[in-house]
Structures are given as structure tokens and as C-alpha cells.
Amino acid sequence: MAKQTFHTKLIGLLKNTPDYVDEESGELLRARLIHHAYQLDHNLIQLLLTENEIADRFFEEIGGRWIFNYNTFVDYVNRHEFLPGSHTKFRNKIILNIDDKSLTERGEVALVWPYKDCVLEGGQTREEEKRKEIFFNEVIAQSEINRMLHPKVLTNWKRYTTTGEQDVTEIKRDENGTIRENLIIKGNNLIALHSLKKEFGGKVKLIYIDPPYNTGNDSFGYNNNFNHSTWLTFMNNRLEVAKELLKDNGIIFIHIDDNEMHYLKVLTDNIFGRDNFIATVPRKTRSGRNNVPYNLSQDFDWMLMYTNKASKKDDLFQRSVSRKYYKTPDFPDDEWRLSDITVQATIHERQNCNFTMINPKNGEEFPVNPDRCWGFPADSFDDYYKRGKVVFPGDYDFLDIRKPALRVFKSEEIERRGDDFDKSSVSSNFLNLAMDELLKDMVNKKGTDEIRELFGKKAFAYPKNELLMQRIIEYTTKEEDIVLDFYLGSGTTAAVSHKMNRQWIAVEQMDYVEKESLGRIKKVIAGEQGGISKSVNWHGGGDFIYCELKQYNDRFLEKLQSTQSSEELLEIWRDMSNESFLNWYVKPDMPAEAKEHFSAINDVEEQKRCLAELLDKNQLYVHLSEIEDEKFDVSEVDKVLNKKFYGGGDDV
User: Fold this and answer.
1) What does the DSSP assignment read for 199-266?
2) For 507-534, b where at least 16 C-beta lie within 10 A, e where not — what string?
3) Measured CA angle at 509 (ends 507, 515), to 5 deg
4) Of 136, 170, 360, 362, whose CB is crowded by the most CB atoms within 10 A?
């Protein structure tokens, strides 16, 4: 048997103590080890003394007594090699790491950028904040990041019906145990998506998102205050978990403009796989304008479309086609319709299909279209005619045709294509609403008009109109499929999904969700007649549940962001010391010397950053696993509803 290395021996020894191991990943908790070392924890010291080689490394003999050199131990634990999931020892040192090896070790080309392996919360709650986002790159071990993304407690439950607001008492599920509720969740969308994984992983048929475009100078209602590298991290964090929520044949639409579209394409190829890319669909937004760079008006934005694991042979996009069928005495047992009797081929390719067709009843001649060919050769004409497959002008008084046509029987279509015989393929132009008779080139204006009609004002910049969402939903889903939008915004996705009898889940962290977004869906269930209501015969009905992620440390991040003075920040610091979870290395008290150093910074934004780094990011929201902990003050009602939501019973 090969001799164990010191490193392997130390890892094995520490992993034998459950207190140092993450239950889900099975990896060591670096921060907890460091914390126990600095606390001179007796259990840790006794454990390290059980192995002579380890004791020799971390203990010194002074005057006949063994002294624990905790600095040596902490330095060793902080090394990059100690835990494969670690990325950085110091906050400003970045290592691009793939599959536990740094880029320089792999010797290959990879999709990498600064902070790629970090987590970006993206926690803005008000449009005017333009919040400078916080990277969690001070979190060293990946297992600790995973703890931040564990399911969270949901609170402030309300059910909205046609009769008004009601208490939530049950969570409806189908016979397979799947939750069958329309949901609006207020809170950080990254945290919310991870909280949805347990119940909705692999069950969502359609995801549509309209994320921040990262233009830097528009009036988009979300936080566009990202530079290129941080924006990629922001999107990567969210798209990775979105993929886990999609069904194998699910589809995701990502709305984007030219500013980041090509970078996003490379990123989504990396997440979903290049083989799962479907198309880039243009959407016309205007018809030219003056005062544009290089005097070239970019009149389109784009939607990237990916499936999860569907085969290219799968019919992901279908639409119902309304065809006119006839029932006549000569064919009493079958209905029929007319179709083009020619095919797209030249006479040189199909010489035997280049002939003059003659009507046996009157001798009228019909030469073939010189740019096409008849759909069968000359020697098959008699057979086709005897079977009633060829219809000539004049055969039926109710038909107005000027050339021969092919008769297609409904029984043939059902035999060939099954019950979905009335479905046809969809052109990639199907969302270019500039060609739509209803909207022409007024796509964004139509969406804005719908919002003004609902709210009496332009409550959102660039809202998507309902017809756009109707086309996406009707071509990619069927009734009761689950539709997800984790940038709810003006609520168009939820509104149209509800009118079209799809189950929908919406996530929004901005404060306007409580008024504008929520208000819109309440009007939908009351039967509002805007948007697509008349075309889908919508008259109201249904219900939905609203709930929120239960905040803990995140409430202090919000307070820090809105504060404008050092004096207010000192008050928040005092509250944090008493009511928040601070990082393990931070003492809860506020010594006078620390306050003096804080005041000497003389830069409010830098002071905010310093206080933000004190907060334990694993405790931004209340963990579901800590729902019974009294310090989080979770109500009995919330405890019951969370158990129903996450487990369908008493066990979570």
C-alpha cells in the first residue's frame, strides 16, 4: 500500500469530524476550520494531536509543553492546494480555475474571464440605486458558496383570486406531486432560482427572460450598472441554474441587444452546449432614426434560443394551421382540401415530371410552370386522376381555381402525421412583429401603450407587448405547461401565460413588483380586456400566490446602499453588531479605535464597502434548514407553508 502524503492524511483526519464537513458536498468547511483554530478550539487541537506527523507540523514544544501554532495551521488551510474548490486567498488575487486546475496547468483554450468562478448577487431593489454590485469573491471555498445558494425560507404569503386577497392555506399539487400554483416570488432572482430547484428542477417547458442589456446609458428598469466582465458573471450565475430548471425538451429565450449579444452567445454555448443552440431570432424595434453612430440605425434586437437536451428531430416549434376542408357527395366518407400540385424542382432535375397536363373531361391543356415541376411523372397521371387526387378548374362550382390542384384527404394526413396533422413548421421570422398587420413597425410603442392603459403612465421602459409573448408561448408550449420568467418587470410574461392557461412562475427583486407587476396580474384575473384578451377570449379567472424570500443580512445591504452619510453608516454598524451574522473573523463589538479608523476613511462609498464585507454572505436570507431557529423569528404559519411548498408534507 502506498504511503499517505501529509496532505492526504490531514484531509482524511479532518473529514472524520462531521462538524468540519459540509453535509451536501462532503467537502471541508475552510472558514469553520480557520474560525476554530483562532478560537483555540479544544476539539480541533486534540484531533490534530492524534497524529504525530501532523502534530509535529502545527505544534511547538516550549518548556516541556506543546503549543498550538494556529498561524501555521491557518496559513496551510488558506493555501490554494488545500481545497480544490478554492479560488483565492486574498480578495484581489484572481486564479482562473477549471475542473480543479488553473488555466496555466490545463494547456488548452477555455471560456474564462475575471471573477468567472465568483458569485454576483445582483441585489438592486430600486431603479434609482444603480447599486455597485458586490462580488462574493471573499468566499474562498466553493462549498461555502453552495451554502449561500441552499433553499431559503419564504414569507408574506398571499393568494389573489377574482374575489380579492386571501390567506394561503394549501399548496396545490397534481397526481405526480408537482406544485400546480402560479407564483410570484419577490427577492434576489439568483437565490430564488436555487430555491425553486428542488420542486421545479427539470419541469419548466419555457423560460423567457429580458435581462439587463449592459448598455450603461439607457433607462432600463433593472440594474444596468455592470461592466463587461461582471455582466458575464452575473448572467453565468443565473443561466447555469436556469438550465437545471428546464425540461429536456424545454426552451429558453434570452432577449438581448447588440451590445452583449455575441458574448452572450459564446457564454450560452458553454452552458447549454453548441449542439443545443436553436436560432437567433431578430425582433424589429423601430424603423430608423437620426443621430446614431456612423449614421446607421440598428433597428433590431435579438432573442437567443436554446433547448436543454432535445433532439434536432423533435418538433419543438409548431403552430396550428387553419385549413379549409370540404365534404362533397363524390367523397362522402372523407373530407378533403386543396394543395399545390407542383414541387420546387427544375425540369432538368425531373425530366419525367415536365409534361403538359390534359383535363380528360374537356381536353383543356395545362403546361407545367417553367420554374417548377408537377409533383408526379407523366406515367402516373392516370392513377392519380382515377383516385381523385387531381382537381381541375371547373370540377366544382364553389372552387375558384385557374390551374390543376392536388386533393389531400384528411384521413391521409391523420394516417401520415397523427392527430397533430394540423401542425406546421415555424419560420424563424415568426417573431418579427414589424411585419404584423396589427403592429407594423410599432413593437415597443404597442407594449408601452398597453402599460399606459393598465397603469395610466409609462411605468416601464421598453415593455414587451402581449402579442410577442403570445407567439412565443403558443409556438413552444401547450396548456398547463410551466413558463418561467425571472425578470418579471412589467409582468407581460405572467399576464399572457395566465390568459393562455399556462402555469407560470415569476421572480422579481425590484420594489415595484409589489405595486406595478402585482397590480397587473390582479387586473388580469379580474378580466381586463387589453393586449391579447379578445383574441384568446379572455374574461378573467384563476389565481396566483405571492410570497417573498425572508431576508436576514440582505436587509442590511439594502440599508447600506440607500445611506448617504457616515453618521448613518455608524448607526447601521451598531444595528449590524446586534442583529446580524458577521463573518467569523469579525468581533461584534465596536471599539473606539475601529470607529476612528472608519471615520478616517472619509469616503462614504468605501465605508459602505467595508461594512458590507463584514456581513456573512451565507446569511443574506434565512436558510430553510434553520427555519426552527428562534433567532430568525419564522412564524408558525410560514413554517407550515414552507414545509408544504418544499416537501408536500411535514418533512422538508
Assistant:
1) HHTTTEEEEEE------SSS--SS-----HHHHHHHHHHHHHHHHHHEEEEEEEEEEE-TTTHHHHHH
2) bbbbebbeebbbbbbbbbbeebebbbbe
3) 90
4) 136
List, for the chain, all residue ranges whose pLDDT scores fall below the cut of 70. 1-3, 79-110, 123-146, 215-226, 286-292, 294-295, 297, 314, 318-322, 345-349, 417-463, 584-585, 591, 648-652
Question: Rounded to an integer, what distance in angstroms lies between the CA atom of residue 122 and that of residue 441?
Answer: 34
Q: What are phi and psi of 49, to 5 degrees?
A: -80, -10
- 8 Å CB contact between 45 and 68: yes
Report the amino acid identity of residue 184. I
Position of cell 470607529? 595
Cβ contact 187:154 at 8 Å = no
Strands (DSSP E) found in 425-495? 482-485
pTM above threshold 0.85: no
* Strand pairing category for 183-186 and 423-424: unpaired
Taking CA atoms, 305 is separated from 250, 254, 282, in Å, by: 10, 7, 11
Spatial separation of the C-alpha atoms in residues 553 and 329, rounded to whole Å: 77
Between CA 571 and CA 105 the distance in angstroms is 48
Please give the span between the terminal C-alpha atoms of the chain, in angstroms, as a whole number.
43
Could you tell me which residues come within 8 angstroms of residue 158 by beta carbon, excluding any fewer than 6 positions away? Answer: 165, 166, 167, 168, 545, 546, 547
Residue 610, φ and ψ in degrees, nearest 5:
-60, -45
pLDDT at 140: 37
- Helices in 463-614 by DSSP H: which ranges? 466-476, 492-499, 516-526, 554-562, 566-579, 592-600, 604-614
